[in-house]
Write a structure and sequence with these properties.
Layout: E1 18-25, H1 27-38, E2 48-55, E3 60-68, H2 78-91, H3 96-105, H4 110-135, E4 137-143, E5 146-150, E6 160-164, E7 168-174, H5 183-186, E8 189-193
Antiparallel strand pairs: 1-2, 1-8, 2-3, 3-4, 4-5, 5-6, 6-7, 7-8
Length: 194
């Protein structure tokens, strides 16, 4: 007596329904943004963002991003801190030594100056993450390994290429030219059922 294996066809309209979670490291992306803006190389510790996506049966989706990079920008090489301090001094038309003396005269310090910069940097990147969260909601359609996401008309969106398995899916490619620059930073992204 032999058993015949049967595989049930996946209903693509509902295969993604539910909650999914992934973790993305933004450290390389942030390092490049700092270089573009201040011309200084820096390597950051992992700057993790938890990405939670909920696909509803009614064809809507929403994304929740939870950044976890508090104080990461303080844990950098001293040479980076020194370069940032020298830039701050130059903006005040002083040498680094003069600027440090001026800070001390006001009860401040070189370290406090960098802490202010790190807090401002963290705030800027946090706002960038929250802006992305606001943009990542709307309607969705999944067909033949391609996920279409849009505010109101997913069929008009450039698809996200994914590989869907039983309890996870992997984002392999962004086909929208506006997101092409992010491929090297973030892909692949593996989501698991939450």
């Amino acid at each position: 007596e032999t058993q015949v294996e049967t595989t049930e066809a996946v209903d693509e309209s509902t295969a993604l329904v539910g909650k999914w979670v992934a973790n993305v490291d933004l450290s390389d992306y942030f390092s490049d943004r700092v270089y573009e803006n201040v011309g200084v190389d820096v390597v950051f510790e992992p700057c993790m963002v938890e990405v939670k996506v909920t696909f509803e049966e009614d064809g809507t989706y929403k994304t929740k991003l939870k950044p976890n990079f508090a104080k990461v920008f303080l844990n950098v090489e001293q040479s980076f801190k020194d370069e940032i301090f020298a830039m701050a001094a130059a903006e005040s038309n002083m040498t680094a030594a003069q600027y440090e003396r001026a800070l001390k005269a006001k009860g401040g310090s070189k370290e406090e100056s960098y802490e202010m910069f790190a807090d401002a940097l963290e705030s800027v990147f946090y706002e960038e993450v929250k802006y992305c969260e606001d943009e990542m909601k709307g309607k969705w359609v999944y067909e033949d390994g391609q996920l279409y996401l849009h505010k109101s008309k997913p069929e008009k969106a450039d698809p996200v290429v994914i590989v869907l398995e039983a309890e996870k899916f992997t984002v392999k490619e962004f086909t929208d030219d506006d997101y092409e620059e992010y491929d090297d930073y973030f892909l692949p992204i593996v989501f698991e059922r939450d």
